[in-house]
């Protein structure tokens, strides 16, 4: 199912963005720029809704949980497009 595969790929991209943020590569790095471009439009609204957690960013975790829930919903409904 294509949509489920796309959700899995996007989950890996989000996870990659988390790993790169720990490594702290320069913002000019092409990998960093790609991951930021792919994830920031989705993570920014989640950050605005989440309360301040003392410098910890839980928005990728919230996004990954949401992606997993959507994936499960698609699998149980049988409509993977």
């Amino acid at each position: 199912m294509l949509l489920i595969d796309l959700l899995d790929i996007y989950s890996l991209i989000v996870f990659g963005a988390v790993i790169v943020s720990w490594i702290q590569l320069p913002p000019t790095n092409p990998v960093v720029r790609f991951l930021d471009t792919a994830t920031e439009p989705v993570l920014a609204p989640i950050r605005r809704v989440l309360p301040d957690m003392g410098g910890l960013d839980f928005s990728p975790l919230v996004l990954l949980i949401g992606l997993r829930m959507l994936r499960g919903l698609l699998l149980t409904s049988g409509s993977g497009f």
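The chain has a mean pLDDT of 92. Residues 2-77 form one domain.
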